[in-house]
C-alpha cells in the first residue's frame, strides 16, 4: 500500500535540508489549512480567509469568541506538536492532556486537560464511547498498545490507528476530534512526513471510515484515507523543491 508513498518520502528526504523560506511558507500554508479544516469539521463557521485573518491577530465581525479561540488555540497546539517532534519525546498521556489543554484553553477551562466525568455520545456515529469510569483504564490500554505494538507499523498505519482508537475512547468532554488529528500528525511528523490535512469536504468519508474502524475493528478504509492525504502533502512539498 505504501510503496509509492515511501518512494516520494525518500525523494523528499534526499532534498533535505529544504530551503529556509520554502520550508517556512509550506509550514504557514499547512498550518492554515490544517487549522481551518480541523475546526470546520467540528462546526466552526470561519472561512479559510477569515481563519487566516484571525491567525494574524484580527477579529472577524459576526463570529463568536469561541470560534476565534478555536483558531488561536489550534495554532498553539500545532506549535506544541512541533516542539515534541523537535525534542524527539516519546508519546505520553501527559502530552495528550497538554494538547487538549491548549485546544480548550479559555473555551472550557474546567475540563481543559482533564478526562471527562460524564457520559457523552458521538453525533451520527454508531459507537457509544466508554462510560467515564473506564476512561483511565482504556487510555492506559491505548498507551500500552502504542508502546508495545506500534514500532513495527508504518507511520501512516500507526498514526491512523492511534487517531481512530483515541477518538473511539473519546476521553474528553470536548475537543476529541481536534486532538486526534493532532496526534495523527504528531506520529507522521516524528518520521519526517509533512503534516496532512483531512479536508472538511471529505468529512463524510472520514466519519464513515472511523465508524467502520470502531464497529468492525476494520481500519483499512481509514488508513487508506490517511495515506491519500499523506501523499497529497508529499506532492505539495516535492512540487516546491523539484
UniProtKB/TrEMBL annotation:
PROSITE patterns: FIDO. It holds the Pfam family Fic. It comes from the Bacteria. Residues 91-228 form the Fido domain. InterPro entries: Fido, Fido-like_dom_sf, Fido_containing. PANTHER family: FIDO DOMAIN-CONTAINING PROTEIN, FIDO DOMAIN-CONTAINING PROTEIN DDB_G0283145. This is Fic family protein.
